[in-house]
Amino acid sequence: MVFDMEFQHYSVMLNECIEGLNIKPDGIYVDGTLGGAGHSYKIAERLNEKGRLIAIDKDLDAIEVSKERLKQFNNVTFIHDDYKNLPQILDDLGIEKIDGILLDLGVSSYQLDNRNRGFSYMGDAELDMRMNREQSLTAKEVVNNYSESELVKIFFEYGEEKFSKKIASNIVKARPIESTGQLAEIIEKSYPAAVRFKGGNPCKRVFQAIRIEVNEELDGLYESLINMARRLNTKGRMCVITFHSLEDRMAKNAFQYLYCDCICPPHQPICNCDKKREIDLITRKPIIPSEKELEENKRSQSAKLRIIEKI
Hints:
- The chain has 311 residues and is of the alpha/beta class.
- The protein has 14 helices and seven strands.
- The chain has helices at residues 2-6, 14-21, 38-44, 60-69, 86-93, 109-113, 139-145, 148-159, 164-174, 180-190, 204-214, 221-229, 245-259, 291-296; strands at residues 28-31, 52-57, 76-80, 98-104, 232-242, 279-281, 304-310.
- Mean pLDDT is 93; it is low at 1-5.
């Protein structure tokens, strides 16, 4: 299968995730970011005939490839959707509670390496960056139609890019911009020559920021994590891998909220919020990739894994 050969994805912190999920052979598990099915395969092979895996991805390419890779398992349900819709997905499947959830919030290696998807600044391709190619918003629309101030905001907030204003200004002057190569050239020229390639490629942060905007990766993430955690059975676990400081902060804050036994103001003498602790924090500090993994897969460099357990 040629397509399958192209879809390569290194499963970040694979062993740590599988151990963290504490899989019951007859449990119901969700992989909300299926990708190349690396994590899903390891989950599925630990389930017996009573167990079930619900595999979700916004990318139809991932769904099709993973169906092939997981064809030996007859207890996998594939869903083409956004993991943020998990409560509705479970309702539609008639499932009240589940035993584990895995989310790997990074873009897959296949999406980065497949030039016609427009995620990468390496090479030249049409500006796209859609994980779900059925949606209308593309990177081309963001780059060519957003106002200069909107671009500055996206680059600064989602990419933590210190030259946001200069880059946004140069993008607006150069419109229309059709390809990743054109965009990369504009970004590079917006950097002072002395610091252009210090600390990696100058395009990385801007391309990341546009990708996050196109795919609404941060929209509703905090609320979604809370809602998903509440669908876990007692002792059910949730593993979340983040690659961006904003993602990780949202995950940390969502889990801290679920862990709180009271959210009343500190000066209030009597609690009347009715908030009860809902989870245990299996990881009080996030797990990071091992030195061996970092050597094998540089893209795991910024990954952080947080694990919770429902009480």
